[in-house]
Each structure stands twice: as structure tokens, then as C-alpha cells.
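Supplementary Methods, section 5.1.

A reviewer requested that the exact input to the structure prediction be made available. We therefore reproduce it here, unchanged from the version used in the analyses.
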Amino acid sequence: MRMKNPEFVHETHPKIIKRLKRANGHLNSIIAMIETNRPCLDIAQQLHAVEKAIAQAKRVLIHDHLDHCLEDTVGPLPRAARASVDEFRQIAKYL
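The structure derived from this sequence is encoded cell-by-cell as follows.
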């Protein structure tokens, strides 16, 4: 297990952990649904919800990284350069 490094802890991490734990619970429920032969439509709907929750957690993590880690590395940015980072942040939502 890795040691916690306060440098990499951000305000959004507890929210991301909560979201992923909830998704993990739903995933376990989906496994049970499959094992008990629930209808495929019900299973597909739940899989879609888990997929969306994980994608949202990933998006928040990436945006958090851009907002904190990237800017900490390059330092304060002038307005023109900031626009490039903002544009990158916007396009990152399509990952």
C-alpha cells in the first residue's frame, strides 16, 4: 500500500472516493442481479449508471489535476496562456 502524500490530496478526493464506493456497491448489486437471472434490461440500466458514475469521477479527477497539479508545476499563468489551459480543461471533458 502506498503512503499518503499530502502533496497529491485535493479537496475533491473525498467526493471522488464517495462516488467510487457508491459505484462499487452498485457493481456488486449488478453481479447479484446477473447471478439471480434478472432481466437484461434492468442489468443494462444499472451498468449504464455505474459507467456514468465512474466517468464522472474520472472527469472530476482530471479537472482537479489540471486546476492544481498542472498549474503548480508551471506557475501562475498570464491571461493568454490561461485561455489555453481553460480550453484544454473543456476538451478534457470528452475523455
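The first helix runs from residue 13 to 35. These observations are discussed further in the main text.
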